[in-house]
Amino acid sequence: MGSTAAVSPGTGTQSERATSMLPGIGLCAVITAVAVAAQAVEERVAGHPYVEALVLAILIGIAVRTAWTPHPRFRTGIAFSAKQLLEVAVVLLGASLSLGAILASGPALLAGIVGTVVIGIAASVAICRALGLPARMAILVACGNAICGNSAIAAVAPVIGAQPKDIAAAIAFTAVLGVLMVLGLPLFVPLAGMSDNQYGVLAGLTVYAVPQVLAATVPVSLLSTQVGTLVKLVRVLMLGPVVVAFSLIAPRLPREPGMEGAVSKGRPGLTKLVPWFILGFLILATFRSLGLIPDVAVKPLTQLAGVLTVLSMAALGLGVDVRVLARVGGRVTLAVTASLAVLIAVSIGLIRGLGIG
Predict the structure, then answer these.
(1) What is the pLDDT of residue 357?
(2) Would you list the DSSP string of 153-221?
(3) What pLDDT band is residue 246 in, cutting at 50, 70 and 90?
(4) Please, what are the domains in the chain?
(5) Is the pTM of this model over 0.90?
């Protein structure tokens, strides 16, 4: 009897949680359907889409979020679609990529990725400090820009003792600027005369999150998506060494008004430093390289990843309030934008310097 009583509440909670996701997922699905239908109209009228369904889903989501704040009952499903479903899409993408591409990229590119992250962090911290941002805020902005956005901010914040208001400001701006990057970065293909391979490297080096690399590269080409995801994964793996480095630097940082207690000496676990979906991506890529995933299964898996990505982009748009820019402050806005500009410049310099075609 006692055992039954213990199990029932848990089962009910799981069922209620699953049910609570339906309104938000349904809203994202409606936006996805509208975006896909709009792309179909473009293809029928012009012969090809000028704006992909993936981008349309983001724009429609942002428009809806700006005009209307979704009721709390939608939030669980929207959050699930924006995070978990997109992570599943990243994992599925691994089935289309052979790890032979890593070997083909050569040690020069791998070293260049590491160098870009280091230069990006150093330049960003210098810019932020020059603009008068506190040391810990500068580090959060630098790591968010140079590595992987919110994930890097969340991983570094505890080891440097960052204040909640600084964490919130850094994450809020990352959410907005991340979407702007997804929408604007493809312009570098015609403006800078980049090949699909070059653009994939640029996206992998500059876009904040692994899922957002999909959003920025899928409209360009499959090659850009594969290269961008690969470069981004190497960049994300830099998070572990960076967190360890800042944990050693943290005791030397100046104390700031409002800080309570000592800097945390704890370090994030393995799942924080190497997210599960990256491991899943690498496992599927390994299976594909070993021939364990047949060719006939690759196309359906890639298509499913595409559908989940569009659905997740709708959720991402619904989570962005463009008015947040006015709340994070002019100095933070300028610091993050200038840091990102430096990162893009360094990335393009790497591409040209290594002669990537």
Answers:
(1) 74
(2) HHHHHHHHT--HHHHHHHHHHHHHHHHHHHHHGGGHHHHTT--HHHHHHHHHHH-SSHHHHHHHHTTT-
(3) confident
(4) 21-254+263-353 (1.20.1530)
(5) no
